[in-house]
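Note to self: keep these together.
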Amino acid sequence: MTDSTEGKSEKGISTSDVTQLDVKTGLHLAEALQLQLDVQRLLHEQLELRIEEQERQLKMMIDQQQKTNESLLKGQDLDITPFAHFPSKM
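Structure:
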């Protein structure tokens, strides 16, 4: 070994080696965070699409139930409107 140890620690790693490791680690972290953001964005979009589809299905079910209720009420010759508001007695 040589007597020249300028810029090196006791373990033989120079400050430029540490700086390069820090830069590489920083780049890996930035890439990992970007990938995580991309995945979260895609999951959010998929979730929104699923919610919208469930909303459409639920609306169709409610509409069908209202039609069924109206049909049953008309079949019984009742003059009742579903979901009508009746004033309370005081």
